[in-house]
Structures are given as structure tokens and as C-alpha cells.
């Protein structure tokens, strides 16, 4: 009883005090949120008013505007018939912290046409401004990202990869299947290898902290076998922007990991770990042993060498992850710091249903509790 009373007070206080904002979703048949962003305080309520058509409000990260953030808030589709007057409303309560939050419409094609929304986006000319987010959603390159290559003393985190989601039909292993894959500017289509091959990568060859080779291309259906040589290494999947952190920690997507593979100095047999290549998007990874990643023990499969997100840039990011500025506060305004903070604040955010004047607070208590304790 005490616990639930406390929970209610914690939830009710900010809701009662918060300001309310109305955001029209697709008014006049246009693919926009109006306004496109708001500046709001924790506990403020945003009423998303769904106009005719069939839209969503779905949380994303800054870097991938049109992909649902794992564990993020989403309304689901809210179909509204033309001529409806009592428009459905979904309420969103701004969580604690002042991290920017990013949203898009999940209806096919809408996000790519710029139907995106933000709470507390940094102002232009920040590389993480609302206009930069919208440009990413539309597949363009924000002008603030196309600056000349930095000198080593003036290092700037490379831009997030430009991605597209695509569906392709692939014939592999005698059967035909449809695959949804994430690709990047410059990646080849998801064509399976005519004859799958195995690519071998030696982990810690001759005691050196490396993968040999560290930077390979592989086709769908190919396998990559990592062979662990003496010392105690891992093969752990990460992301381009966070080379030395397991993928699930920075994106919510589970990644592959071999675990530690201790091998004696005089070993003659070497343990292996194998992955199968399922699509042509770049795969990034590192050694999870203390200090190894920051010494450059990273690898890439299908990195796009023609773009900024190439293997050399990944290696540089890995090495910088060991420096004090990267382990604590990254330089303000970098995509890496924004991605991390928005992911950290994304847990357990919910929408409430309602219609009419937005007085219905059908809130999920368990979800809100996480915001306020
Ligand atoms: C709304 O859009 C989704 C996704 O395109 C679709 O699955 C659903 O059937 C649509 N609902 C209506 C009522 O049109
Ligand atoms: C391998 O490294 C991990 C992490 O540092 C450690 O926990 C483990 O004990 C090591 N294994 C051996 C056999 O040295
Ligand atoms: C490829 O798909 C299989 C089966 O879903 C999965 O186990 C494996 O981890 C995937 N490979 C990669 C590199 O993600
Ligand atoms: C990675 O591989 C590509 C293709 O073989 C090559 O052009 C590039 O120079 C390599 N990058 C590094 C840093 O080794």
C-alpha cells in the first residue's frame, strides 16, 4: 500500500504541474507534425492529435530517424477516417532529463518524406539540430556534416552512417526468401554469393593485438571463422559510432559475441568462432579484453571504403575511445554523445490514449515509475 501510494504521488505531481502542448499529426492531409518540435520540461504533456490517414508517432534515435528505437515509445498505427471530427489523441509525458527525443511516422514512406518530430532538439547550427535530423530522415546530408576532413588536432566524430531500410528477395541455399535488411550508402545489393566461402580471420596473430585481416568483404551466405591465437581475446559485435561497446549496449540490437577465449602460449590447437553473413550492411567488432580495443584491436566486414564510415575512421574512433575525452564527456554536439544520451533516456516511455480535449490519463503506471524514480 505504501509503495503504491508513493508511486502515485511521484507520477501525479509532475503530470499535474506540467504544461500541455498540442501537436497536430498530418493535419490537412500533409505529412508533417505541426509544430515539428517543442521545447518542453520533464512532466509536460504532449497531445498528439491524429488527423485523417493512418499515422504513428514512433521514437527513434537521432542517427537512424526512420527506425524504431528499441524499447522506445510508440503509438502504433492510428487510422482515422476522412471526415472524422472527434480526433483521437495520444499523450506523451516528457521524461526526466533534458536529452533530445526523436520521433517519426512509421507509415510506409512518410518518414523519408520528412514526417519527423523532436522534443528539445539543439538549435541550429548544431549537427544534432531538428533540421539536421529531418535531413537525415530524408536521406540527405545536413550541410553541417559535409565539412572538410578535420586535422588530427581538431578531431570531429565522423557522421553517422546513412542508412536505408530495404526489402529484397534473395535466393539462397535452394530456397527463395524475402529479407528486410539495413544498408548504407554505397553497399552492394543483398546478393548471395554464388558459392559461399569461408573467410578466416586470425585473432591475435603472433601475439599482436589485431585481427588478421581486419577489414574484409564477404557476401551473403559466406561464413567468417575467427581463429583465436594465444592470449585471451574476444570477438564482440559493436557499432560504427561506438567501436568498443557491445552492440546491444548502444543500439538495443543483440550482437554476436564469442566470449573470452583464453589460449595458452604454447597451444597448437586454436578455438574458433564462426558467424554467417546475412546481409551486406557493414559489420563492426572489437576485442572485449581490457584495453585491447583502444589499442586498435577492431575489425570490419563490408565497410564502405568510399564513404566517411570506412575502416580507417572506425579504427580511429576505437583508438580515441581510450582517451579521457571519449570515456567521460564526449565533445558536446557530437553524434556519439547524442546517440548515447538519447538511448540512455529511452527506457520505458509510454503513450497514453485519449480523445477529445486530452483529459484522459490512461497512464501505464509501471512505465512511468521508471521515469520518476
Ligand atoms: C494502417 O497502416 C498499417 C501499415 O501500413 C496497416 O497495416 C493497417 O492495415 C492500416 N490500417 C487501416 C485501417 O488502414
Ligand atoms: C580472460 O579474460 C577475462 C577478462 O579479463 C578474465 O575474466 C578471465 O579470467 C581470463 N581467462 C584466463 C584463463 O586468463
Ligand atoms: C545471421 O542469422 C543467423 C540466424 O538468424 C543468426 O544466428 C546470426 O547471428 C546472423 N549473423 C549475424 C552476423 O548477425
Ligand atoms: C580496407 O579494405 C579496403 C578494401 O580492400 C582498402 O581499400 C582499404 O584501404 C582498407 N582500409 C584499411 C584502413 O586498411
UniProtKB/TrEMBL annotation:
Q: Which residues form the signal peptide?
A: 1-18
Which InterPro entries does UniProt cross-reference here? Cupredoxin, Ser-rich/MCO-related
Alphabetized, the UniProt keywords read: Signal
Region Disordered, as annotated, extends over: 130-158
This chain's protein is named Phytocyanin domain-containing protein
What is the scientific name of the source organism? Hebeloma cylindrosporum
Q: Give the taxonomic lineage as stored in the record.
A: Eukaryota, Fungi, Dikarya, Basidiomycota, Agaricomycotina
Amino acid at each position: 500500500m505504501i509503495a503504491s501510494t508513493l508511486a502515485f504521488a511521484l507520477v501525479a505531481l509532475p503530470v499535474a504541474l506540467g504544461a500541455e502542448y498540442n501537436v497536430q499529426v498530418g493535419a490537412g492531409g500533409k505529412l508533417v507534425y505541426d509544430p515539428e518540435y517543442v521545447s518542453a520540461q520533464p512532466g509536460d504533456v504532449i497531445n498528439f492529435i491524429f488527423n485523417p490517414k493512418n499515422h504513428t508517432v514512433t521514437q527513434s534515435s537521432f542517427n537512424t530517424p526512420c527506425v524504431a528505437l528499441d524499447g522506445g515509445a510508440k503509438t502504433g498505427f492510428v487510422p482515422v477516417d476522412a471526415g472524422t471530427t472527434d480526433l483521437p489523441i495520444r499523450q506523451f509525458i516528457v521524461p526526466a532529463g533534458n536529452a533530445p527525443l526523436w520521433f517519426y511516422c512509421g507509415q510506409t514512406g512518410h518518414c523519408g518524406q520528412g514526417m519527423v518530430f523532436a522534443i528539445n532538439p539543439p538549435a541550429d547550427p548544431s549537427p544534432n539540430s531538428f533540421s539536421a535530423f529531418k535531413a537525415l530522415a530524408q536521406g540527405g546530408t545536413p550541410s553541417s556534416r559535409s565539412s572538410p576532413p578535420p586535422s588530427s588536432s581538431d578531431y570531429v566524430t565522423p557522421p553517422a552512417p546513412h542508412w536505408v531500410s530495404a526489402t529484397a528477395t534473395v535466393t539462397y541455399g535452394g530456397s527463395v526468401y524475402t529479407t528486410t535488411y539495413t544498408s548504407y550508402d554505397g553497399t552492394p545489393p543483398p546478393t548471395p554469393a554464388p558459392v559461399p566461402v569461408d573467410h578466416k580471420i586470425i585473432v591475435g596473430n603472433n601475439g599482436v593485438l589485431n585481427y588478421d585481416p581486419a577489414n574484409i568483404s564477404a557476401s551473403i551466405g559466406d561464413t567468417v571463422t575467427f581463429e583465436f591465437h594465444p592470449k585471451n581475446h574476444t570477438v564482440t559485435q559493436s557499432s560504427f559510432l561506438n567501436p568498443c561497446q557491445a552492440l546491444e549496449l548502444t543500439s538495443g540490437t543483440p550482437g554476436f559475441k564469442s566470449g573470452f577465449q583464453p589460449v595458452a602460449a604454447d597451444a597448437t590447437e586454436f578455438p574458433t568462432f564462426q558467424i554467417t553473413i546475412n546481409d551486406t550492411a557493414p559489420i563492426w567488432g572489437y576485442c572485449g579484453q581490457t584495453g585491447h580495443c583502444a589499442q586498435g584491436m577492431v575489425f570490419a566486414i563490408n565497410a564502405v571504403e568510399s564513404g566517411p564510415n570506412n575502416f580507417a575512421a572506425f579504427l580511429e574512433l576505437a583508438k580515441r575511445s581510450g582517451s579521457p575525452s571519449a570515456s567521460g564527456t564526449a565533445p558536446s554536439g557530437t553524434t556519439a554523445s547524442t546517440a548515447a544520451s538519447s538511448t540512455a533516456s529511452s527506457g520505458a516511455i509510454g503513450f497514453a490514449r485519449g480523445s477529445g480535449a486530452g483529459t484522459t490519463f490512461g497512464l501505464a503506471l509501471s512505465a512511468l515509475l521508471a521515469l520518476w524514480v
